[in-house]
Amino acid sequence: MTAKIAYAEVEAGTELPARTFPVTRATLVQYAGASGDFNPIHWNEKFAVEVGLPDVIAHGMFTMAEAIRVVTDWAGDPAAVVEYGVRFTKPVVVPNDGVGALIEVSAKVAAKLDDNLVRVDLTATSAGQKVLGMSRAVVRLA
């Protein structure tokens, strides 16, 4: 399978469809089971507060994975992403209020590279705070 987006049809500045991802405590427990990361800062409010966090926080790798979904959904093939990196700037705080948190992600093509590659810059925020910095993916298009 290859990307559904044609390199020739994309320009620098092309915006990808933005997405919002809900995160609840149940989501974090499911992710912990899948990833094997059972650090109590991701599920135990008392422990999280004791170590200086405002509340339970989402796994960094979970946040990173949710963000790249904007790119993989746009490209139509997760394998089209050939490089991806972020800096974690703020945690996604997930209160136990039945609502949880939202991760809002937008992205745009920042540059067209050689060999049908594009660089996509992502912006991820939660509660009005930027949670990922230097979030960039290199994607091979059709």
From TrEMBL:
It comes from Streptomyces hydrogenans. Gene3D superfamilies: Hotdog Thioesterase. It comes from the Bacteria. Belongs to the enoyl-CoA hydratase/isomerase family. Residues 17-120 form the MaoC-like domain. InterPro entries: Fatty_acid_synthase (IPR003965), HotDog_dom_sf (IPR029069), MaoC-like_dom (IPR002539). This is MaoC family dehydratase.
